[in-house]
Amino acid sequence: MSEYIRDTIHITMESDVIQLNPSEFPSLLSEITDPPQKLYIRGTLPNPSSKLLCVVGSRRHSPYGKDVCETLIQGLSGHDIVIVSGLALGIDAVAHSAALKAGLHTIGVPGSGLDDSVLYPRTNRLLARDILTSGGTLLSEFEPMFKATPYSFPQRNRIMAGMSHATLVIEAGEKSGTLITARLAMEYNRDVLTVPGSIFSGLSYGPHMLIKNGATPITESGDILEAFGIKSTDEHSNLDTHKNLGENEKKVLQFLEHPMLRDELLSALKLPIKDAHILLSSMELKGLIVERLGEIRRM
Fold first, then answer.
1. Same structural domain for residues 113 and 33?
2. DSSP type of residue 37
3. What single DSSP character describes residue 59?
4. The pLDDT value given to residue 233
5. What residues contact residue 116 under an 8 Å CB cut-off, 6+ apart?
6. Residues 176 and 292 in one domain
7. Are residues 99 and 119 in the same domain?
8. Is the peptide bond before 121 cis (omega within 30 degrees of 0)?
């Protein structure tokens, strides 16, 4: 049974930090060469049978990276997959937020202790609260009042890689700390997945290097499910959904085989402008399409 931490440091009841017994640690951590001696938690651990996916990437991601992360995680909705990330700025925060939106359990592993006063970064403390409110988890091997340091981030990366069945890399420059997590995942004999990017972007260096070294390229959510040995139900659900679509809605989805600018799509539909806008708004509310940066794409 877990015990509340009791020491000379005052921890507010609001923080509700608990020290786990070793028997409660995520099971895969016992397989790594340098497992943590202690783990502190806020929130609730997921079902032990869940598949854990570590999602990492650039702190200064591109719009493409954000869009890819959100789309891939949304496609995992309804499956027993947990999103693990580092609560950092950039792709980490995008991954946690996308998991919450998709109704997936998510675990934040910050490079600090878990008390509200030190939780890092400060800008993501509301996100941390949302994770806890949703029934998710904050996890750290550092003492509850420990303030983040440069060495604590690489140290926590081994926790994320070690506890997860696979690590997904979304954008990483040549010197990105994200590649530390990917390297650790490989050392721990975990699957490394990554999203190809533009050959003209420096953020594609990491993914393309990983693919050359044997990482699995990911171009859709089904690729992640396949890596976990989970049968995708998307084909059947899409068939059922399309049965209930109107002719104009089907036409929109046909045009969106590739993302289109709104003006291009409106022109292609050849509908009265008012009717076309109403159609697209309705489809967005239904979750069939999404518009980002003026570009419309299928969900």
1. yes
2. S
3. T
4. 58
5. 12, 14, 15, 125
6. no
7. yes
8. yes
Q: Residue 129: left if φ>0, alpha if ψ -120 to 50, beta else—which one?
A: alpha
Tell me the three state secondary structure of residue 232: coil
> Could you tell me the CATH number of the domain that includes residue 89?
3.40.50.450
Domain total for the chain? Answer: 2
Handedness of CA 13, 17, 19, 20 (dihedral sign): positive
- 209 and 278 in a single domain? The answer is no
Task: Clarify whether residues 270 and 288 are in a common domain.
Answer: yes
Measure the N-to-C terminal CA separation of the chain; round to a whole number of Å.
43
Look up residue 54 and give its two tokens: 């570590």
Q: Please tell me the predicted confidence (pLDDT) of residue 177.
A: 86
- How far apart CA 214 and CA 230 sit, in angstroms, is 21
CA–CA distance from 61 to each of 4, 56, 73, 135, 283 (Å)? Answer: 38, 11, 16, 27, 28
81-85/51-57 β-pairing: parallel
Chain-centroid distance of CA 58 in Å reads 12
φ, ψ (nearest 5 deg) of residue 144: -55, -30
Q: Are residues 109 and 32 in the same domain?
A: yes
Domain that holds residue 252: 234-298
Residues 84 and 64 in one domain: yes
Kindly tell me if the per-residue pLDDT of 231 is higher than 90: no
Q: Are residues 173 and 259 in the same domain?
A: no
**Per-residue pLDDT tens digits for 51-96:** 999 999 999 999 999 999 999 999 999 999 999 999 999 999 999 9
Kindly state the helix (H) or strand (E) to which residue 207 belongs, with its residue range.
Answer: helix 205-212
pLDDT exceeds cutoff 60 at 18: yes
User: Rounded to whole angstroms, how far apart are CA atoms 175 and 36?
Assistant: 26
Closest CA to 206 of 217, 221, 220: 217
Residue 229 DSSP SS3: coil
Q: What is the pLDDT of residue 299?
A: 75
Count other C-beta atoms under 10 Å from residue 277's C-beta.
Answer: 13
Q: Report which of residues 289 and 10 the model is more confident about.
A: 289
Instruction: Output the pLDDT for position 213.
Output: 94
Identity of residue 179: L
